[in-house]
Structure to design on (271 residues):
């Protein structure tokens, strides 16, 4: 028996928004520890890694590990039937071929349940080593979304360069060039509005704007976002999900021919 | 020129 009850159901709705542009389907791996999902997009350029810890749920029960393959388009349709205020429960029997979503209104006067067929997915998993990155940049998530949107107008690729002075985002294309420089915040009233840079060595990498823009669909999950970079390795873009977990995106850089 | 890298060339497939 698997059962996970989330008082703040809107979080699951936001998680779905953060996944569905990159992934058509994914396996939700459930264990004692919580729910994890790891999947690459079709082109194997980016990877989404979601972690929702058991402690973050109001009620969590997982008698045996199970991997539920879900069509995210279908799941998204179902979650659209939940109100933002609803409490959401995900339930499945052991070895079941369906999963049930239960939506309860806050005062319990409306309860809906939706059963969805599970899929057999044979997905590749990647082993992602713990890495000490040469640069980590924390910035407001809305600022990052704005930068990705603005620079996408100039070209397909964006260069992210980090030095101790700050971080520079640049794109070049037919109409010209755009450069956005962010300096580290000198002082801030609110932690989530800060730009904080930790740098071991300067890094400059080029990434496809299309994927970065897809990552920013997670903006509503967190006020800030962390970018981690090292020379010639994939970028990590991490959004914390309140006190329940995180969604991380990995993006392979463009490489010189 | 530049080409788009793929993640499976950076990380081990389990």
């Amino acid at each position: 028996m698997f059962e996970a009850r989330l008082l703040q159901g809107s979080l699951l709705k936001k998680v779905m928004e953060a996944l569905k542009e990159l992934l058509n389907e994914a396996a939700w791996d459930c264990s004692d520890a919580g729910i994890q999902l790891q999947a690459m997009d079709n082109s194997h350029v980016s990877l989404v890694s979601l972690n929702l810890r058991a402690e973050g749920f109001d009620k969590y029960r997982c008698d045996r590990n199970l991997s539920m393959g879900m069509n995210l388009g279908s799941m998204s349709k179902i979650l659209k039937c939940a109100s933002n205020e609803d409490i959401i429960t995900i339930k499945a029997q052991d070895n079941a071929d369906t999963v049930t979503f239960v939506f309860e209104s806050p005062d319990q006067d409306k309860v809906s349940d939706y059963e969805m067929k599970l899929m057999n997915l044979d997905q590749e998993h990647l082993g992602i080593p713990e890495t000490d990155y040469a640069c980590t940049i924390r910035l407001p998530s809305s600022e990052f979304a704005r930068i990705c949107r603005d620079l996408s107008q100039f070209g397909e690729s964006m260069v992210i360069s980090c030095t101790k002075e700050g971080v520079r985002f640049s794109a070049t294309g037919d109409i010209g060039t755009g450069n956005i420089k962010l300096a580290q915040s000198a002082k801030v009233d609110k932690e989530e509005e800060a730009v904080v840079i930790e740098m071991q060595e300067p890094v400059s990498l080029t990434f496809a704007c299309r994927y970065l823009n897809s990552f920013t669909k997670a903006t509503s999950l967190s006020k800030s976002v962390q970018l981690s970079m090292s020379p010639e390795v994939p970028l990590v873009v991490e959004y914390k999900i309140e006190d329940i977990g995180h969604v991380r995106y990995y993006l392979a850089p463009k490489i010189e021919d | 020129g530049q080409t788009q890298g793929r993640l499976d060339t950076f990380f081990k497939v389990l």
